[in-house]
Amino acid sequence: MRNYTTEADPTPLVGPRLDHLLPDLIAFRRDLHAHPELSFQEFRTTDRIVARLEAAGLKPQRLEGTGVVVDIGEGPIATALRGDIDALPIIEETGLPFASLNHGVTHACGHDVHTTCALGAALVLADTHREEPLGATVRIVFQPAEETMPGGALACIDQGVLSGVPRIMALHCDPRIEVGRIGTRIGSITSASDTIRIELVGRGGHTSRPHLTEDLVFALSQIAINVPAVLSRRVDVRSGVSMVWGQIAAGAAPNAIPAVGHMSGTMRCLDREAWHSAGELLDEVVQQVAAPYGVDVRLEHTRGVPPVVNSEHETALIEAAARAELGEDAVVLTPQSMGGEDFAWFLAEIPGSMFRLGIRTPGGEEYDLHRGDLIADEGAIACGVRVLAAAALRSIRDL
């Protein structure tokens, strides 16, 4: 029997279809959490996803190496939903009974929840289609290697997962938002993230005679201070360009100017166009700052990911789904994040949107992502499934 929200929005509610699946989904998530796998090594995870989809009568297709794609329904593709499946090289410190059995690897970013929500959406949509044909197809992408740069999304695109797909949607755990709510934002929700490494080379010498050599340590310090300052004046400040150093190393003695030193950091940006222009400008600025000191400069600029830029229409579909499934106050405005996310590569090809899934227990402790003690409230799984599946159903009506 169908359940409807309102006469104005006859999209069937997902919640009633989910109750019988929840125990299985929670068990599935705990199994993934106990057996986390690093990027492009998610072989067991892939096997588990395939087995569960096949048990539901679906026909998943394995991607090259790791990852899975499955189509549900018939006819033109209305949308794709993406769940990332890899874990991080972090020691788990949660003390959970289903804590990681792979020492030094854990789902500290919540990808076990992402995968489970995508799986749950697939199962709900399959049940719906069996009862009454969807009238279109929903593609679910279980993507490997989000935690690497430039990310497993590129490999998925190369294998054709976006072929015929008009839009794509995804979620990401947010331990700042309470369970039962999601965070959305139109426009940039995450930042571009590049890795910068600079090596300086000189002759070395005595600290009493810096004028007879190249003062390499002083040159490093000037680059560390002035390159971020110059970038902030040469690139539109509204683009949010941020150059932050995480490592500087040179020398072994207090009275010796070293011959080699290096520094590395990240450059982040909230605007896609500014990301390109800042990258082109970076080499020029580094060379100019270093020039007075006579050192040789070797710059390695590793492009990471562009910013995730949410489209207005797809964000509206997600918000309508969340309000119908979780309540009128379920949607909050999420702040922009300077973290990188390879979902951006999908959005460079087609429109789409990523929302933040609240995983904090109401009134409970607030954690942060990429920490070994991160605990996600499992009540978030039902919320994530409901919003993903309901947004997919609205995408079908939107064709």
Structure report:
The mean pLDDT is 95. Helix content is 34%, strand content 24%. The protein starts with 14 loop residues before the first helix and ends with a helix. Helix 4 links the parallel strand 3 (77-84) and strand 4 (137-143). The strands form four sheets. It has an eight-stranded mixed sheet. It has a four-stranded antiparallel sheet with strand order 10-12-8-13, with helices on one face. Strands 7-14 form a two-stranded antiparallel ribbon. By secondary structure, the protein is an alpha/beta fold.
Describe the protein's topology.
Elements: H1 15-18, H2 22-34, H3 43-55, E1 61-62, E2 68-73, E3 77-84, H4 111-131, E4 137-143, H5 153-158, E5 168-178, E6 182-184, E7 187-188, E8 192-201, E9 205-206, H6 216-234, E10 242-250, E11 256-257, E12 260-269, H7 272-290, E13 296-305, E14 309-310, H8 312-326, E15 331-333, H9 343-347, E16 352-360, H10 379-397
Parallel strand pairs: 3-4, 3-5, 5-16, 6-15
Antiparallel strand pairs: 1-2, 2-4, 6-16, 7-14, 8-12, 8-13, 9-11, 10-12
